[in-house]
């Protein structure tokens, strides 16, 4: 993809961030399930809730 303007760069970066958020939404529940610490599990679950919003 050729980034010929700042607008193109901005849109490309937004797409990357959107993709990362979607990957995180899939990964966080698995990470929380695998967490051995109750505190870590709670933090990951809270992060999932915030990310979903």
TrEMBL record:
Organism placement in taxonomy: Bacteria, Pseudomonadati, Planctomycetota, Planctomycetia, Gemmatales
InterPro entries named among the record's database cross-references: DUF892_YciF-like, Ferritin-like, Ferritin-like_SF, YciF
UniProt organism field: Gemmata massiliana
Identification of the protein by name: Uncharacterized protein
Domain of life: Bacteria
Matches recorded under SUPFAM superfamilies: Ferritin-like
Pfam families for this protein: DUF892
